[in-house]
User: Fold this.
Amino acid sequence: MLFLHKIGLTSINIMIDTNFINLYESSFRENWELNAFTDLHESTTITYGEFAKEIARLHILLEEMSITKKDKIALIGHNHTTWAALFMATITYGAVIVPILHDFHPESMENIIVHSDAKIIFIELNIWKNLNKDKFSQPVFDLRSKDLIQGETDETKNLKVRVDKKFAVKYPDGFQVSDIQYPTIRNESVICLNYTSGTTGFSKGVMLTANNYAGNILFAQGLNLLFRGDKSVAFLPMAHAYGCAFDFLAGLSMGVHIHLLGKNLSAKTLLKAFQKVKPNLIVTVPLILEKIYQKRIQPIISKPAFNALLKIPLLKRVVYAKIRKTLVAAFGGNFREVVVGGAALSKEAEDFLYKIKFPFTVGYGMTECAPLISYDNHHDFIPTSCGKIMEGFMEARIDSDYPQTIAGEIQVTGENVMMGYYKNPEATAAAFTEDGWLRTGDLGVMDKNNRLYIKGRIKTMLLGANGQNIYPEEIETRLNNMPYIAESLIIKRNNRLVGLVYPDFDEMEEKKVTLKDLEKIMNRNRLEVNTKLAIYEQIGYIELRNEEFEKTPKRSIKRYLYVGDNNNVGI
Assistant:
């Protein structure tokens, strides 16, 4: 059952020749003297050589803990050099890493650790204090110091001293470039269990192989967006497949200096980091661009004087160029491209950024593909699309009689597709078609150039009164760009569409808007959005929420929690 996707092989369902682990063995040697990581909050930097040395020390620690090949190691913490070292030490040792997102609920962390059969746990102390320690009998280490904080035995006493002694014996002349030699780990080996809560319920452990990662990293290397000695800012959680592949593993394979922004992430701190580092590539989620659009651009372009300027062709080009220059400077002014992934970018923000020729693109993927499925360079990007299928690595098809015009489920096969779900043959079987293609659960169309256009999730698509397909995400993107709306969710209740809205309270406070005023504003928002929608897509009324929607690690709203939600004020 775990190998269903190998049925019905296509020309690209073969193992990649380049060994994934060898990519890093080569990179650490070739970039020995270059800077590898900087922890921005601590202003500490280590070179590739120092990073490889730390990996070698961790290998001895794993030996002392009697870790064998294919054993599972849980890793929980914010982006940090020690997190990166433990991830790489685990997979280059031959064990399986289980990265767990630091913002998961403690109970979810506990369930994942137990389900994954982790032999040891590396965790930040401030996260560990919130877990039920009685659930764990395995050794637990502080992520930062590597101190054993639970599970000490006679065999593990003076562990650090023993590791230091063994390291000194193994490398009597100090750790050298020639000492970077990792065991042979074949590409078909599972090296990571990546748990994601998703938007449909309980977490599943996605079994990712070295080959899955190799497909992503080799594709990234061929894009010519990063080069040896370049700089990047890693602010997406590296425990998530998207941040792991493109903020961490891709750059590390190419000699990039990765600046880690771990804690206290906000738009303000992020823009400060961009100013300081001046990254050559920016990998982000829609939220960042949308917030900048809503807060900085929309107030300007909504003014009558601005619209008057746009009616004069020469001035229009000048105005757009000035806005583009300001935005580029805000992101550090030195990047080749902004890659947006994880969710759809709002149509309004996307349209405007495209008009001013801001160098951005939107890609598509999922954890089960480690994660990439499609991508376009910003020069080739077409609005509302999410790029072409990765040529040579992946194939896609649309489960529709008319795949270019009528949406159907996007199904994929290729190098990046997971092995299956850990200890869950039923979920694995459900994830694949009879002929072995992965069901993405996403609805879309694909043009003759293999470019994808996402329409929504199968499980979120709503049916109109006369059987029309309604894609709530498309309505939400319009609603989210209306005044005083921070985020929204479209649901169906009593055969009417309802807009659940979490207001932008900061903007309300700044402009002294009262709740009574807000009711009138929201009704105007609803009426204005409805003018741009088909009759069967009309929003019947809006409900205000006092709290943000609960979200997944990709910042997608957990829709299933709000179906039938009827505890808010209607407008």
Q: What stands out?
A: Residues 78 and 262 are 5 Å apart (CA to CA). Confidence is low (pLDDT under 50) at residues 1-11, 565-571.
